[in-house]
TrEMBL record:
<dbReference type="InterPro" id="IPR034660">
    <property type="entry name" value="DinB/YfiT-like"/>
</dbReference>
<keyword id="KW-0479">Metal-binding</keyword>
<protein>
    <submittedName>
        <fullName>DinB family protein</fullName>
    </submittedName>
</protein>
<dbReference type="InterPro" id="IPR007837">
    <property type="entry name" value="DinB"/>
</dbReference>
<dbReference type="Pfam" id="PF05163">
    <property type="entry name" value="DinB"/>
</dbReference>
<comment type="similarity">
    <text>Belongs to the DinB family.</text>
</comment>
Amino acid sequence: MSTTTTIERPIISAEELLTAWQGHRNLTRKVIEAFPEKDMFTFSVGGMRPFADLIKEIITVSAVGLKQIVTGVITPFEDAMPQIKEKADLLQAWDEASEQINVYFPQISAEKFHEDINLFGEYKFPAIENIQYFIDNEIHHRAQAYVYLRALGIEPPFFWDRY
C-alpha cells in the first residue's frame, strides 16, 4: 500500500502579501504626487482630516507598527511628525517607510504572523490581522484622498494602477 503526501501551498505567501501591500503603497504614492501642495495640509471635506494628516497616520501605523511586530518594542501611537511641512517631506517620509516595510516584513516568521501583538500598547491582535489592518487603513484613507482630489477638480490615479 502506498501513501500520497500532499503539500499544500498557501493561498498567498508572505512574499506575495508584501508585493501586494507595496503595490498599494505605490498607488498611494501616486495619489500623494497628484495632490496639490497648497491643499495637502489644509483642505478637507465634511470634517475629515487634511490629506497630509492621513498620510502621517498611514506612515506611523504601517512602518512603526511593523517594526513593533518584529522587534517586540512597543511604543505609544504618535503621528504628529512636525518635521513634515512640505509635500517633498511627506514623499521622503513615505519612501523611507516603504523601505522599512521591505526590511522588517521578511523578518516575520510563519509562527510570528499568528502571535498576538499589543500594537502601540492599544490593539492586541495576531500580527497578520494587524498587517491586514495596515493595508485596509491605507486603502480607506486613499479613498478619502480620491474624494478630495475630485472635489478639487483633479482626476485621481486609476485605482488599479498599483505598479
